[in-house]
């Protein structure tokens, strides 16, 4: 049993039991900055070793994956789930974007099992954060009430939001400094990483349990979607990983990225771009159901799927 | 108090996502400045703990003259009330150095 998901369960159980445990808001903020930077740095350092001609086509395929997933999710929510267009589009956007912490847990899963993977995969994390959100916004605006989208503030929100700046900035620093330049930072960014991830998951457990009450009002369809959609996305992600020639470990990470749903960047962007969408629905699906599902059951399941695909 | 001058205090409590747009709006509507604080609480949309990104709320306070306060409240009502969880109220207060807040 991996220790890291247990911290999530501890937080979740503590909140359900009405413990007074609470992490200071500023600590949450600091931990998330640390995680984003560390993940970016690590990916950038590995990216420096890669041949750009090999990575570029992969990067384009991954961008396409980020467009496809919300396009698959939207009709499921809109036609089958009978959600309003703006709600279906906003939820689809959350599922098109990614969760950084889910990615970190998947990396830990691979490391614990000594499964090799392409260490520049944080690049894909950066690439997948944005297209899903943009597609979600476009889907929301396509029907009926065509209101002009103010792209200026929106692009600012997407490209200069804190997660994007830290991830992409870390990636660039790691790429520019290389392994040698980053060696002095090793103890801080890489050795301490797992401990920080545990604290963050403890907080996520508290937050998820605090929101869990909304499940009662959001309907059974959303709960089923929030489990089914990640599995479907993981299948698409597995196919994509195999197509672009990733190793089994890299494909598992891509499948996990595909399966994950954003609960930080996407809610902030959607709140401004699609104000009529009910934020409670997306958050409940992404954070209360999909996030715990992925870190507790999903990643081992996707490992099986990838194993089957790679004949392992 | 003899050295205070009448002024309006507009208070807007809203989702953190609105901080940027609101700041821009109130300045464009004639406010000379504003103060923002992170807050938490409970209302008709449920409780907001402020513990993480999508659950944060802010309180924006603007000291201004009556015309500006009217412009701000009308604007907020029209643009944000329908889709956002927010509370807005106006109070009569007394300020020192009124030239900082009113035209």
Automatic annotation (TrEMBL), chain A:
InterPro entries: Sbt_1. Coiled coil: none annotated. The chain crosses the membrane at residues 55-77, 89-107, 119-142, 154-176, 188-209, 221-246, 252-274, 281-302. PANTHER family: SLR1512 PROTEIN (PTHR40400:SF1). It comes from the Bacteria. Pfam families: Sbt_1. It comes from Thauera sedimentorum. Keywords: Membrane, Transmembrane, Transmembrane helix. This is Sodium-dependent bicarbonate transport family permease.
């Amino acid at each position: 049993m991996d220790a890291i998901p247990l911290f999530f369960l501890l937080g979740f159980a503590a909140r359900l039991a009405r413990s007074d445990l609470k992490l200071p808001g500023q600590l949450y903020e600091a931990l998330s900055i640390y995680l984003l930077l560390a993940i970016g740095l690590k990916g950038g350092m590995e990216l420096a070793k890669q041949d750009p001609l090999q990575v570029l086509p992969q990067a384009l395929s991954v961008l396409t994956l980020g467009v496809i997933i919300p396009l698959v999710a939207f009709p499921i929510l809109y036609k089958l789930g009978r959600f309003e267009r703006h709600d279906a589009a906003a939820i689809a956007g959350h599922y098109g974007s990614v969760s950084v912490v889910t990615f970190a847990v998947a990396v830990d899963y691979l490391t614990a099992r000594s499964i090799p993977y392409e260490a520049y995969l944080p690049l894909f994390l950066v690439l997948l954060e944005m297209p899903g959100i943009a597609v979600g916004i476009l889907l929301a605006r396509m029907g009926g009430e065509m209101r002009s989208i103010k792209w200026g503030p929106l692009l600012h929100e997407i490209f200069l939001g804190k997660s994007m700046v830290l991830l992409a900035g870390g990636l660039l620093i790691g790429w520019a400094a290389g392994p040698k330049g980053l060696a002095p930072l090793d103890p801080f960014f890489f050795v301490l990483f797992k401990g920080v991830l545990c604290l963050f998951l403890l907080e996520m457990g508290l937050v998820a349990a605090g929101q869990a009450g909304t499940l009662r009002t959001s309907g059974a369809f959303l709960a089923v979607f929030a489990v089914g959609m990640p599995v479907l996305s993981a299948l698409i992600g597995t196919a994509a990983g195999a197509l672009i020639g990733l190793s089994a470990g890299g494909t598992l990470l891509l499948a996990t990225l595909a399966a994950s749903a954003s609960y930080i960047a996407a809610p902030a962007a959607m709140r401004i771009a699609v104000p009529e969408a009910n934020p409670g629905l997306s958050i409940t699906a992404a954070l209360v159901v999909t996030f715990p599902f992925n870190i507790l059951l999903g990643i081992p399941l996707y490992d099986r799927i990838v194993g089957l695909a790679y004949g392992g | 108090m003899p050295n205070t001058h009448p002024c309006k205090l507009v208070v807007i409590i809203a989702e953190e996502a609105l901080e940027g747009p609101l700041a821009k709006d109130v300045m464009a509507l004639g406010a000379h400045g504003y103060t923002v604080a992170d807050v938490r609480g409970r209302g008709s949309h449920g409780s907001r703990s402020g513990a993480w990104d999508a659950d944060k709320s802010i309180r924006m306070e603007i000291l201004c003259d009556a015309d500006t306060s009217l412009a701000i409240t009308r604007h907020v009502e029209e643009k944000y009330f329908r889709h956002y969880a927010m509370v807005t109220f106006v109070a009569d207060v007394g300020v020192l150095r009124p030239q900082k807040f009113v035209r």
